[in-house]
Amino acid sequence: MTHETTAHHIVSYKKLVMVWLGLLSLTGLTVWVAHHNVGIGHVWGSLAIACIKSGLVIAFFMHMKYEGRLLRWFLLLALAIVAIFIGFTFFDVLYR
Amino acid sequence: MATVQPTPTSFWNDTGKTGITSWIFSTDHKRIGLLYFYSTFGFFLVGVLLGLLLRIELMAPGRTIMGPATYNATFTVHGVVMIFLFIIPGMPGAFGNLVMPIQIGARDVAFPRLNLFSWWLYAIGAVIVLTSLFTGGGPPDTGWTFYVPFSARTGTNVSLAVLGVFVIGFSSILTGINFVTTIHRLRAEGMTWGRLPLFVWSIYATAWVQVLATPILGITLVLIMAERILGAGLFDPGRGGDPVMYQHLFWIYSHPAVYIMILPAMGVISDVIPVFARKPIFGYKMIAFSSLAIAAAGSLVWGHHMYTSGMSDTAILVFSFLTFVVAIPSAIKVFNWVSTLYKGSISLEAPMLFALSFILLFSIGGLTGLILGAAATDIHVHDTHFVVGHFHYVMFGGAGFAFFSAMHYWLPKFYGRKYAEKPAVIAWAFMFTGFNILYFSMMVLGLKGMPRRYYDYLPEFAPLNLVSTIGSWILAVGLIIMLVNLFRGLFWGEPVGSNPWGGATLEWSIPTPPPTENFDQEPVVTHGPYDFTKAGVP
Amino acid sequence: MNHAPHKDYGGAKLGMWLFLFTELLLFSGLFLLYATYLSRYPREFTAAGRDMHVGFGTLNTVILITSSLLAAMAVTAIQRNERRNVLLLLGGTILCAVTFLCNKYLEWSAEIGNGIYPGSPRLANGPPGESVFYSLYYITVGLHGLHVLVGATLLAVVAVRVKRGTVHAGDFVLLENGALYWHLVDLIWIFIFPLYYLIL
To answer: What is the total count of domains within chain B?
Structure first.
């Protein structure tokens, strides 16, 4: 069997709370940005903030930072597929 | 297991029980595989029957045996049953379950209970689909693609059929998750990625497509229900929706889905050909790699179903180009199979005959696919019988014939008895002949301009339609001979040893029929899957 | 045949992640529609977004992020063998889930009271982009709400198992997978929030 030893990394309460505080301040930031930058351009800004937030959740809450390379590659694959499905549709939507 | 048993009990009589509950609640991958085999193959026969009825209707112009409404329902149910209830769950569910764990030297799949659950979901979904035929407004008449706006408005029982397909999709996802995990975690010692049988590689690629593409089908089907039940109007141009977006979503799943159908078939062929050519496979790495390449590239080409739907010209260009890219890994496989045959010591037994005809029929299907993939030619043959002919060459001549090959190749292993060779060859000859008469005529009809999904046609198409229908009868005769011979052989035929074909993959190294535990001790793999010398087979 | 039940920690987690990918892809279909319709109706989307209750949205975001923190802490707690804390933290997570759903109920009641729901006469007579925006909103958030419900139920089951002692410091993959599912619910919301509430 191809078992790699799975070391169980324990993430401290302190670190988790720090991440939580980070998430809260990013939420505040995204609300603030939305109210002070009227127009469609801020969609990209909001999405960027959302990406940072989900990066934090995935890395620390979901322990991805402490996982092996395999899972990271798989996550990347899944995200790439999402990007392709949405991106390729825009070959149609943008040029119609 | 501390004590070494000289003759381990086979999985057929391990529990001492024989009732149906010892099957439908079993978590043994072999029993679940056979459950899948019989349920999917049963639906295949239903689909065949509907197909024969369609052909009888088209035998002559005008109404022959059914009216237009019945015809619409019949081709819809034929498509739904064949695609969602047979081909997609069939090959991974039946042969993936039966063979894959043994081929990697595992005792079972990674999540045996989940495996049983996915069969149950399949069964429940199938029951829902069947219920939709006899309740509400009657069987759906949208075609298996459920295109809006018609599917949002027709009075037939689309919602229930769609719900059934949704449940079956969930079952397919769980199978995919199970298989990816199994292949990553449960390979026996020495079973490196370079020693995986090519059938396992193809199941692996298929499982990824099942995991990543099927959810899109799920959400698409949910949206149809939302259109019908809530009146969401997401695809209703009157309220700002766009029906073409439905087609995008549908084909984002359904194009990769044709690779769920064909990839395991290619895996079967890659396993059968070296055994019956008595030669190691040519280009192992390229075949393994091309399975992944097909899975990846196949996810980028969904737009080629929509050239005439009002998609932008840029999109047509991009998707047309990418479609041609998919042809490359497919061709790599075909060339490698043919090179394996070169100077081999070929024995033309039934599994091999089906495998060889797969190469020919799949090549015809694939090359006609390029005619459809090129936008300029597609505009002319889109929605004609040319398309019907093309995809039956790929799906039936490809996936179907590979399924028959797998049935003749692997089922004796699990039953311990074998069919008679001569009737099997006769059956193959009938099927191969009937198949080509049936579907080649369709392609010619399509080029002459006969549209698909019409119950009636102009008189000038009559002769070829008659020929096509006669082909369907020849095919049916071959199918009946095959079934009678195969199943009579499996239950009452002559017993076979552990390695009737002289294969070098792991499933041939264990007793026939396999014991519940598959392996007495966890095997240690020391040679590749097609290394006949080291495996010690003549 | 008395094999010890097969325990493969890495395998179970791999399976869970694969399942999360399928959930991600499920929602990506809706985000795909959102993206295409936003590019077609930027003005209508902005106008419709202005009618959304930012207060409810922000509150629910904070609640979900907090619940995610509690779930992550529960995983830490079980590794440290603090069973009482695990139960408290899981209880907190479930409480957050219930509060989230209550807020959702209030918010939807208000909106439906204003005549905004899929197929409503008000939307049917309004500009086309607005109807699309709200239909997408109801389907996306409804599906997400369903996931909140499923996730909370799953965590409740895990909590019972923890109490009974079948999930413990030596074998907690069920808790970890339950928490992973919960984080996914949070992740989806992190994207729903700006796309639907902050399009001003």
So the answer is: 1
Contacts of residue C37 in chain B, CB cutoff 8 Å? 240, 242
Identify the residue whose tokens are 């086309």: C128
Could you give the CA distance from residue B312 to residue B245 in angstroms, rounded to a whole number? 12
Mean pLDDT of B98-124: 96
Q: Between chain A and chain B, how many beta carbons pairs sit less than 8 Å apart?
A: 52
Beta strand B417-418 with B494-495 is antiparallel
Identify the residue whose tokens are 């925006």.
Answer: C133
Instruction: Output the domain CATH number for residue C49.
Output: 1.20.120.80
- Residues B287, B281: Cα–Cα separation, whole Å: 9
Inter-chain touch A70–B319, beta carbons under 8 Å: no
Q: How far is residue C155's CA from residue C78's CA, in Å, rounded to a whole number?
A: 14
B196 neighbors B115 (Cβ within 8 angstroms) = no
**Measured between alpha carbons, how far is B96 from B111 in angstroms, rounded to an integer?**
14
**Closest chain B C-alpha to C84 CA, distance in angstroms:** 31
CA angle in degrees (0–180, nearest 5) for B248-B253-B255:
85
Q: Report yes or no on C19 lying in a domain.
A: no
Q: Rounded to a whole number, what is the distance in Å from the CA of A20 to chain B's nearest CA?
A: 30
Comparing C-alpha atoms, which of C75, C36, C42 is closest to residue C174?
C75
Q: Chain A closest CA to B176's CA: distance in Å?
A: 14
B484-537 confidence digits (pLDDT tens): 999 999 999 999 999 999 999 999 999 989 998 899 888 999 988 998 888 777
Chain B residues near residue A88 by CB distance under 8 angstroms: 300, 302-303, 318-319
Q: Which amino acid is at B466?
A: L
Domain for residue C185, yes or no? yes
Domain limits for position B81: 23-535
Strand runs labelled E in B292-415: none
Which region among A60-64, B4-8, B182-186, C157-161 has the lowest average model confidence (pLDDT)?
Answer: B4-8
Is B7 part of any domain?
A: no
* Interchain pair A89, C194: CB under 8 A: no
Q: C-alpha distances in angstroms, C138 versus B65, C141, C146?
A: 46, 5, 12
> How many angstroms separate the CA atoms of B212 and B410, rounded?
29
Instruction: Please give the ipTM for the structure prediction.
Output: 0.93
Query: With a CB-CB cutoff of 8 Å, which residues 21-80 of chain A face chain B?
Result: 70, 77-78
3-class secondary-structure state, position B449: coil
